Amino acid sequence: MATLAVGIDVGTSSVKAVALKRTGSGYALKSVGQADIRRSEFHPEESPQAIAEAPLRALERVSQDSAFSRKPCAFAVSGPRVAPRLFKFPSIPRGEVEQAIRFEAEQIIPFDLAQAALDYVLFDEAMEEGKPVMEGLVVAVHKEEVDKRYVLLKSAGFDPVVLDIDTLALANAYSETEGLNERETVALINIGARFTNLSIMHGPRRTFVRDIATGGDMLSRAISEIYGLDLPQAEKRKREAVYTPLDDLEGGGFADEFGGGGGQTEGFGDTEGFEPIDEGNEEYVLLDSDQTGFEAGDTMTDADNFEASGQTQSGMDAAQRISANRAVLADALGDLISEIQDTFKYYINRRIIPRVDKVKLCGGTAKFPDIQEFFAGQLGVPTELWNPFARIDVGGVAGKYPPNFLDELGPMMAIATGLAMRQL
């Protein structure tokens, strides 16, 4: 078993890398790396060739750290050419499982399995109407997607040896650092630039996953429309909004997508009247949309309650800032909220899970101001920012970085962390 392992997360907007070492008490961080990928939407001054080479250049910058270069690494893929599907069939002898799962996959995977890499995991055997049934998750990834990522990593000086998918790497990081009890259901939501990875973990051995085709780019587009900015300016303001309210920004300084907050509400439970549609579509689950419960005029904090006699002007200013952030979030992420709500209902209505107990947000966009309160209010589930580094020993490398750097960077590193743990 390896004692040092590397995970490389190649996203849409950045490359993230984590090197971990197994210790007697868990894991220790040995190095961390991050490099932005310049994209045409936000860098129109770049040539088409420079944009095409941007992922490779970002990986090359990360590989300058000797902790990553030429080291065996785990990598992952996500998106429409990754097809995770649940399966269930009557209990059969173990020797027949693989053939049965392949037959099942041919019925439910939306592309030719001859062009796919296929793997599966079995959950604990369950009882249904007094008879044992086998349940699990099968994943098919189009080989072109795997080959493209493999060649990219090799070209940048990495040695890719383990393939995963983003949603399962996310779940792996959580189970290894936080753990789950048998009755707990946790939804992990990693908000990337173009895709959001959703992993629902019910107990330590059951995971349900989905990629949703929307993410932090929608925040930039909402800011562009609401404030009349071009996309590069809007992207810059989105990142700066963590430190300076949207309405106060004057275009100064650059900052990464860092911010904070938290929320507590009652659990998700209203599932009456829900009906799924078109489960055979290429999307993992396509479901009816529900109202998110947020109207255009709503705010997280009611300005009418801020009377001059009872509250300071700073309180009013805070309410206005929350309202501005909430308006952007509702405009940008309303569809994402609906997809997540529908996914929760899908599993609850089929009694696959009893409820969702809590939500953990990660990814760069998870640091946008007031987003945790927004998700908690919309989903009706306690929502917190999740930093996988909080349960990892970072003492050996903390001195290499500015104060609080690892705390701020950690929520962006969940997938890379889970990938590194796959090798240990």
Short overview:
By secondary structure, the protein is of the alpha/beta class. The protein has helices at residues 48-52, 54-63, 97-108, 143-155, 166-177, 217-227, 231-240, 313-349, 371-379, 405-409, 414-422; strands spanning 4-10, 14-23, 26-36, 72-77, 82-90, 116-122, 126-128, 131-142, 159-165, 185-191, 196-202, 207-212, 358-362, 383-385.
Question: Can you tag this structure with a few keywords?
Answer:
424 residues; Nucleotidyltransferase, domain 5; alpha/beta
Write a structural description.
The chain is α/β, with parallel strands linked by helices and 424 residues long. The protein has helices spanning 48-52, 54-63, 97-108, 143-155, 166-177, 217-227, 231-240, 313-349, 371-379, 405-409, 414-422, and strands at residues 4-10, 14-23, 26-36, 72-77, 82-90, 116-122, 126-128, 131-142, 159-165, 185-191, 196-202, 207-212, 358-362, 383-385. The chain has a single domain (4-422), classed as Nucleotidyltransferase, domain 5 (2-Layer Sandwich). It has 11 helices and 14 strands. A 5-stranded mixed β-sheet has the order 3-2-1-4-9, sandwiched between helices. It has a 5-stranded mixed β-sheet with strand order 12-11-10-13-14, with helices on both faces. Strand 11 (196-202) and strand 12 (207-212) form a beta hairpin. Helix 6 crosses helix 8 (313-349) and helix 8 (313-349) packs across helix 9. The radius of gyration is 22 Å and the shape is globular. 42% of the residues are buried. The model is unreliable at 250-316 (pLDDT under 50).
